[in-house]
Amino acid sequence: LPRGWLSTDLLGTKIDLQVLCELMEDHLPAVRSHLQRLEIPLELVASGWLMTLFSTTLPAETLFRLWDVLFCNGSRVLLAACLAVLRLLSEDILACVDFGDVSAVLAHKIAGFHDPQVFIEATAEYMEHACAAEVIEEKRIAASAAIAGAQDPQRTANERCLLKTVKSLEKERETVRDLRREIRCLEQQSLTGDAR
Asked: For 129, what's the count of Cα atoms within 13 Å in the CB-facing half-sphere?
């Protein structure tokens, strides 16, 4: 889990909730708008999922499959799982007229996710693009800077500098990958040339 996830100020959780809001605006805008119209903060809906790693909401078999994916792929899985829940229940959520309706839908319908395959496939779809590791890391840095910026302007400058460094490292990592592929290709060509 990210640093500060369960600290006394819950900074890591706050950062991921902000990232989730952003992801919803990009990928589930109708659900996000509907929750805003009903004046239901996403933090109220999703913080329990994140802080308990879904242990209080999902049926056991589905939960254990989610945790398998979580342990293999890291905490971004939790954000993808939140998006998956909201997408799978989007029609029901959009039919809600108040907080009580939304709470009932989320409590009863999530408890009914007895087919882990459907839930894990929906989660995996979001992990490929919306919750790809580099996307989430960039969004977490930006969210951290936004949260910290309200408290400390110098820290915001440091976060921007860190974000530039992360992007630079990603470019370097990609260059190294390309060079390794090229070396492997040349080695293969050399081996096939020696075999003749």
From this structure: 4
